[in-house]
Amino acid sequence: MTIEIIKEKTTLKALQKKVGGYIQLVPLANGQQLIVDEDAQLKGKMTNAEASRVAGTIIAGPAVILELIECLD
Questions:
Q1: How far apart are CA 66 and CA 5, in angstroms?
Q2: 8 Å CB contact between 9 and 72
Q3: What is the pTM of this model?
Q4: Could you tell me which residues come within 8 angstroms of residue 40 by beta carbon, excluding any fewer than 6 positions away?
Q5: What are the structural domain ranges in the chain?
Q6: Which of 1, 12, 24, 66 has the maximum number of C-beta atoms within 10 A of its C-beta?
């Protein structure tokens, strides 16, 4: 698995669909936020090696970084 970079406006529902559940924000050292499924490990999703390396903690399932701050409702 990799980290998807989103550079266009998006919605909460679209982010939830991409990560497969309710979102959790994981702060990164560079000030960005990694967006992941808050229950991915409980759901048995596979470890995302790239996201885990970037976050410095174990991340399971799809991960997203927003390059654009603005979200649409």
A1: 6
A2: yes
A3: 0.85
A4: 19, 20, 21, 59, 60, 61
A5: 3-72
A6: 66
